[in-house]
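Write out the 3D structure for:
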Amino acid sequence: MQQTHPALIETMRLADGQIALWPGHRSRLLASAQALGYRLDPAQIEQQVALEIHRLNDLSRQAAWRVRLLLQENGLCTLNSSPLPDTPVPVQLAWASDALAGHTSPVLLDGDNTWRRHKSTHRPWFAAAQDWLQQHSDHFDLVFCDLADMPCEGSRCNLYVRDAQGTWLTPPASMGLLPGVQRQSLLAQKLVQEAPLSRHDLQTAPALRVSNALRGWLDARLS
């Protein structure tokens, strides 16, 4: 039987006739394809994305769309889209260690796991979280810690706390977390900076936010 390799994913927001943060999505996809040995034709990807934008803009006046790009190891690229509803804020978070207590899946993430650094269909460490979130629609995400019990990321978002001086801090990429496209944009604009965070930091911060490229940079609260 031929082995099926994970597909690389970019989940993108189409609004006002364009893909938000498209250069970041393209850059991450290219980097992951190169690192993992996936075939990728940049010109073909650009053409397919442009055609999908044109199709959706002609289809409806829907305010925003969720556009999901899948790249197979052999270079096959597919796109599917669906309407994107608004996200009520602040979004609700919970600790994975609390929500998944007693579950067989580990709730601490290994920073040496190469696949965590690439957005793909291979995400077994978040499978239990996704099942839990489907059953708890009032929650946006679960917050995971690394093996040293330091908060690193959510199953679908990056994390931020505002410190007492008003600086927004996000866990460093060296923890093995996914380099979120929205996170990279915030870092490039110097709106946030990397710093190790503790559970206490998240629980006592003056303000808490999460981000992903689909939903943006959102106010959050932690239960």
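Residues 91-222 form a domain with the D-amino Acid Aminotransferase; Chain A, domain 2 fold (CATH 3.20.10.10).
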